[in-house]
Structures are given as C-alpha cells and as structure tokens.
Amino acid sequence: MRAGLFIALIAAAWLGGGQVQEALAQTQPSASPGESRKASPRKESAPRKETRRSADPFTVGFVTGTPQCTEFAIARDIATTLASGQETGPHGEVALRVVPIVGNGGVRGVLDVLTLAGADVAIAPVILVDRLRDAKTFGDISDKLAYIAPLHVEEFHLLARPEIARLTDLAGKRVNLGEDGSAGAVLGREVLNRLGIKISESNLGPEAALDGLRKGDLSAALLVSGKPVSFLTQVSQLDGIHLLPIPYFKELLQQDYLPSTLRHQDYPNIIAAEASVDTIAIKSALFAYNWPIGSERYRLLELFVQTLFTRFPEFLGDVHHPKWREVNLAALLPGWRRFRPAERWLQQQSGGEAALRKAFGRFLEGKPTAKPPDREELFQDFLRWRERNPAK
Questions:
Q1: Structure pTM?
Q2: Tell me: the pLDDT tens digits for 149-166?
C-alpha cells in the first residue's frame, strides 16, 4: 500500500511537470519579434508539497541541473565539503548530509522543491523563478519559496558549426535549446524571439546535442550554465565547433539579462589566446522550500544554513569551482524573502544581534524581577516572535 502511494505521488509530480513544460517550453519555432517579449505560462492549480516523514531526517535534498552543468558541480562541492568534519549522531548516523538530485536546471527543479518531500533546496535562475511567481503558474509561491542566498551568474554558451558566423545565420536552422523546461529552452527561446530570429527548435540533452553538432544534424546548441563548464572541455577546435557571440542589445535585453564575456582562460580548447566571445548571462540563487517554523525539515535546513554559511570561506579555494568567488552571501534578492535562519545568521555576523540585545536590555531596565537567566530566555522568545512576525 505504502509503495503504491509513493509511486502515485511521484507520478503526480511528474505529470505536473509535463503540464508546465507544455506551458513554458512549447516546441514551435521561435516567434516573430512582434510577439510577446516574455513567456506567458498558463496558470495551473497550485501543487501540494509531500509531507511524509523522511527516511533520513539528517539529509537535505539539493535539486540541481544536469551532471554536465556547473550548477551540479556547485551542489557537489557543498555535499562533499559539508560531509567532512561532521560529528555523528547517537546511533552513528551522519549529523548532516547533502544529496544532489539531478534536475534540468529549470522549471522541473522548482516544481520538485514545491512538491517532493525529500527536495529542500534548489539552484535556479532568478528570472525563471520570477516568471513562475508572476504568472502564478503554480499558484502563489511567494510564501512557499524563500531564498538562502544569491549565487553566481549563468552564461549563455551558444556552440555553432563552422558555417555559422553570426547569430542571424541561425534563421531557419535547427538549433538545440536544451531539454523541455530547462533554462536554455525557456529563456533561449525568449531571447531569440526578442532578437527576431526564427529557428527550428530541438530539445536534446548536452551529450546528444554535442553529437548532433559533430554530425551536422544541428547548426547550433545552447547551454546555459556558469563558466567555465567542464563539459565543454570535450569540444575541440578540431571539431570545427566554436562559440557564437550573442550581442547584448540593451533596449531588448537590459531588464532581464546581463552582458558577459567568455575568454581564452575560460575555454582554452575553443577560444584562441587573447580572443574573447561576447554573450549574455542571468543571475542564479539558492532557493529553499519555506517549511513551517519548528518543523523537522525547518530545523534541518536551519542546520544546513548555519553550516554552509559558517564554512563558506572553504569554498573560495582553488579546489572548488571558481564561480564560488562571485558569491556574496549578504546580497539581496529583490522581490523575495530570505529564509529566516539565513537572515538571522547574517544579522548576527553584522552586529544585528548585538544591537538587538542592547535595545532589549534598555527595555528591561527598571524591571528587577528579570534575573539574567530570565533575560536570556525572554530574548530568545523575542527572536522567535520576530521570525513569526518579520514585518514588525
């Protein structure tokens, strides 16, 4: 019975993902420039989060992109680093484990965090999550998701065959934008629409797309991921494949996209010395399911945040991906509320807690019944009240 229920729940989540893919990742050729500049996903009924008890209450489920992308490497960095130096629990269990869950780096990852009991956090493009929230594709998700911290930017890598010299050469050609619902499929289509380039769209994974380029079945293939993407070391100038520039047209892209550059040091196997390739990029962030305060999963994520933030300097070394050096944990994400334990940790580091304690001490002055132990207990109650009432 339990197995059957579990399978049914998983099937329901996947079916929900299919509906979203229909709405956000249609497979028609890119639209003309006169069409809407933004994706207009169809509204779906709000998904329900599975709340069954986790088989391992010490494990954080981390949804990320495909194994070929940088975002998966970031999740792996977190998993391996936080696993080291961990004390064990009373029965020998690991106190905190992070398990990467393979997604497509797009809509499906967001849906997984919103629905699956074992999915707690995800790396996702901010623009894509904004689209889902504003269109209410999954209902009102403003209170269901919170961000832990903004992360790095993800660059657009447009690989092309030798006969393709500029973006306009792709008109009418077969171009792979990535799997349905991925950031490349949703946002790549949007960018091409804005630039008025109509293509014949393909939706293959990275390995199949690279094979299609080599065989001539595809004229170009898009990969949206933080540079340098280790998967692209498989590409050689001997293949005749090169990175195609994506010009940054300010009037068309400024609101949602950033200008960026790919350089020889990023991809010495594709870009010649002293050369560079202009492209565009998007911001990414680490989002979390906003579990109820005091719940088992909330406490687990609180431990995850405290451990990740405390050990953040370890990720800045050469053994980890260079994208870590772009991360500013204290940066804000407009339009979203930060996960409460993350906000509290940052306040404590910046002297926020010291200021609160000073103000609280002045409040209790002249109250002789408040002994020191009572004061500390009252202060902790006060902090918990602020978590429940963040606007006050």
A1: 0.77
A2: 999 999 999 999 999 999
Structure tokens at 129: 């999550």
Three-state DSSP state, 387:
helix
Q: Is residue 9 part of a domain?
A: no
Q: How many domains does the chain have?
A: 2
Give yes or no for a contact between 239 and 80, defined as CB atoms under 8 angstroms apart: no
Residue 320 tokens, joined: 């980890």
Q: Determine the Cα angle at 64 with ends 23 and 262, to 5°.
A: 90
Domain that holds residue 345: 15-350
304 and 244 assigned to the same domain: yes
Same-domain status, 300 and 365: no
- Considering only CA atoms, which of 77, 124, 67, 132 is closest in space to residue 101? 67
Alpha-carbon span 219 to 30, nearest angstrom: 15
Q: CB neighbours of 149 closer than 8 A, spacing ≥ 6?
A: 285, 286, 327, 328, 329, 331, 338, 342
pLDDT tens by residue, 16-66: 444 444 434 433 444 444 443 444 455 566 777 776 655 567 899 999 999
Amino acid identity for residue 126 in this structure: V
Integer Cα distance of 126 and 147 in angstroms: 10
Whether 14 contacts 104, CB under 8 Å: no
- Helix/strand/coil for 248: coil
Q: Which residues of 185-224 are buried (b: 16+ CB within 10 A; e: fewer)?
A: bbbbbbbbbbbebbbbbbbbebebbbebbeeeebbbbbbb
Instruction: Report the CATH number that the domain containing residue 115 is assigned in CATH.
Output: 3.40.190.10
Closest CA to 28 of 192, 149, 158: 192
Q: What is the full DSSP assignment across 190-211?
A: HHHHHHT---EEE---HHHHHH
DSSP 8-state secondary structure symbol assigned to residue 158? E
> Domain check: are 92 and 240 in the same one?
yes
* DSSP SS3 for 251: helix
